[in-house]
Amino acid sequence: MSKLMKRAGVPGDQGLVLSVTPETAGWKYVGFKVHQLQAGESLAALTEHNEVCLVLLSGRATVATEQVIFAGIGERMSVFDGIPPYSVYVPAGDRYEVQALTELELAVCLAPAKGQLEARLITPSDTGTEERGSGSMSRRVVNILPEQSEAESLLVVEVHTRGGNWSSYPPHKHDQDNLPEESYLEETYYHRVNPPQGFVIQRVYNDSGTLDETLAVYDRSVVLVPEGYHPVSAPPGYDSYYLNVMAGPVRTWVFRNDPQHEWLFPARKS
């Protein structure tokens, strides 16, 4: 298996099925975990030097930090229900505890921070949903923790792509700390596929050709994007969902399209 991809395993301690740390990824900013809990199970952790965005991918839970409790949150039972998620922002220097009220799939998104903000609930109505692209390049984007929302490092979005369509397309990249032309952002893609026996295709490649991998990505897999362009294709009959987590030295998303393909979509929406 490619070093850029990792599949979820069986639930371990506190339901952990998938973990990416800066150390295992070989980068500096983004951490990502997925927990699968049964009703009545729980997990707890210190945020330490990271801010955390807890995304309830599916299921209901009560989430507590040191200062506040968000009881009985969550609405969708599948990422393919067509509604945005509930999420909780937890600052650095805090802790969180999650009690599953139903079967729960929880994403834990992490990036370095100083603890300058307060914990808060992000409801579906707090997110912004937009349609991007057209024709076979169309997809629906849910902005969970976008640049316009308060955070120190994290950017978190989810993308829904119908079978037969492409997303993160035309191919774009954000691997240069060269503002205002481009920002450096590490990124993870957590993929779900419907029906789950399917797959999607993701290519990760750079201008020099030193990185060029085309991956068959299965349900409950994470793809690491340390650099380069990273388009996704959903085969006919299989709908794609992915959760994107990005972070870098500056919290801004300024990307550059692959100049060979930019003619496909000059509006620069990816």
Automatic annotation (TrEMBL):
Output the InterPro entries linked to this UniProt entry: Deoxy-glucuronate_isom_IolB, KduI/IolB_isomerase, RmlC-like_jellyroll, RmlC_Cupin_sf
The UniProt entry, under Gene3D superfamilies, shows: Jelly Rolls (2.60.120.10)
Q: Which GO terms describe its molecular function?
A: 5-deoxy-D-glucuronate isomerase activity; glucuronate isomerase activity
Q: What is its EC number?
A: 5.3.1.30
Identify the keywords attached in UniProt to this record, alphabetized.
Answer: Isomerase
A matching Pfam family: KduI
Q: Tell me one GO biological process term.
A: inositol catabolic process
Q: Which NCBIfam families match?
A: myo_inos_iolB
| Cited PANTHER family | 5-DEOXY-GLUCURONATE ISOMERASE
Write the protein's name: 5-deoxy-glucuronate isomerase
Q: Which organism is it from?
A: Paenibacillus albidus
